[in-house]
Amino acid sequence: MKVWGYFRSSAAFRVRIALALKGLDPEQAFVHLRKAEQRAPDYLARNPLGLVPTLEDGPATITQSLAICEYLDETHPEPAFLPEGAADRARVRALAYTIACDIHPINNLRILQYLLKTLKVDKAAHDEWYRHWIAVGFEALEKLLADGKTGKFSHGDTPTLADICLVPQVFNAKRFYADSELAAYPRIMAIFANCLAHAAFQKALPERQPDFEPG
Description:
The chain has helices spanning 10-22, 41-46, 65-75, 86-103, 109-118, 123-144, 161-173, 179-182, 186-196, 199-203, and strands at 2-5, 27-30, 54-57, 60-63. By secondary structure, it is α+β, with helices and mostly antiparallel strands.
């Protein structure tokens, strides 16, 4: 098994968490997004969209972080990323998709760079774009977590796919929001703190990756 990633990528961070929760330690390869290594022909042959992460497992090459997480859950069932029961599984997926499909895509690196470099928006407008969509998403997520099924983690007291998505998104948000501002989302931040106390989440932290760069 081999995984291509970048320490600062939220999507790659999700997969690192998933691998750590499953106790898997694949070979790592690094794709420096800010140096445009994702556009290299050999990488595009592996992942035509030019994004990270990419997972190779024997003959299988899998792109998209949630597809990778569900693949790992199916091939290594314990601990499970989804709870029992169709309604609870749908709840966890909805929380995960709120982050991975509605918040993250419009705030990831290539979108922010397009705003700055192609559309020529100024830095203030760029930052306002980011903060607006985080606020919209986090306000909704905070309400979704208020349905009585949240425990230490997003669903009960064990990590799920929702937490795999939540932690990288909060890390991302902390680049543009002060901790005092994020306190407006107490459920999100309580879950975030509980996740950071878990060994698998600690192992996956950006600053603990071989390709980490400060700043």
